[in-house]
Design a protein that fits this description.
The chain is built from ten helices and no strands. With about 250 residues, the protein is mostly helical. The chain has one domain. The longest helix has about 35 residues. The protein is elongated.
Length: about 250
């Protein structure tokens, strides 16, 4: 897995130079700007609503009054940490849903950018084809819905696990790695579709090479420091990753 992570990280570094060299910034700025606005607005409203929900649950269970009655600092610390872990996993759950909506809405741009990247790499003329684009979008949407279903099941299980003191503290790390894996899976699939992998073959291959998907997704998260660049860099980096894997 370490070798796969190194390949994916190198591909992201190459993606920056590739985008500059081939003047692909117009495919970054507009989708990136839309993504940034949706992300900031969505995160604001989610954080407000999620905080209200967990405060309401805490009030109904009379947790705060019980802790004040017990006056046990260690017990209070455990419940505070549990609350923090629960909120972190909840944020990742929201981000998971938001991500899949973006993957479905942005699939035409992602598919086109992946095709164009591969055409430049292989020094072929890129010909736009509506039929192929429509096919890629449908495949991407089906994969996104499939991944969303499985990830939601796992995340709900992690939310329950986060309620367990001490043991639940590791749940945000597990949730983050799972989030990275499923996002990377969607990004890599655009390239696998063009080498005639069926969706099941693509899922099976990525399952055997999890490092490629996890690294791509993790770098996507880190790129949120510069929100506007994250989606396009993810797809270009994923395409370059698959190209390197094919050559190896």
């Amino acid at each position: 897995m370490l070798k796969e992570i190194v390949i994916a990280v190198q591909s992201w570094a190459d993606a920056h130079q590739f985008i500059q060299r081939n003047r692909l910034f117009k495919w970054i700025v507009v989708p990136g700007f839309i993504y940034t606005i949706l992300f900031i607005v969505g995160m604001f409203f989610f954080w407000q609503s999620a905080d209200s929900v967990w405060s309401w649950v805490s009030g109904k269970l009379h947790i705060e009054s019980w802790l004040q009655k017990e006056r046990n600092e260690w017990l209070s610390f455990l419940f505070v940490m549990t609350g923090v872990m629960l909120r972190l996993v909840s944020v990742l759950f929201y981000f998971s849903i938001f991500k899949y909506v973006i993957l479905i809405i942005g699939s035409p741009v992602f598919a086109y950018l992946s095709e164009k990247t591969e055409a430049i790499i292989e020094q072929k003329e890129h010909s736009f084809n509506w039929a192929d684009l429509k096919k890629d979008c449908k495949r991407s949407a089906r994969l996104a819905l499939r991944n969303c279903g499985w990830q939601s099941v796992y995340l709900l299980a992690l939310i329950l696990l986060s309620l367990v003191p001490v043991v639940g503290w590791i749940t945000p790390v597990i949730a983050l790695l799972m989030e990275c894996y499923y996002f990377g899976c969607s990004m890599l699939d655009y390239s696998f579709a063009r080498i005639n992998f069926t969706p099941s073959q693509s899922i099976s291959f990525i399952g055997r090479h999890k490092g490629l998907a996890i690294a791509n997704g993790l770098l996507f998260y880190l790129m949120h420091v510069i929100l506007i660049l994250a989606p396009a860099y993810a797809i270009v980096g994923a395409t370059l990753t698959v190209h390197k894997v094919k050559n190896n």
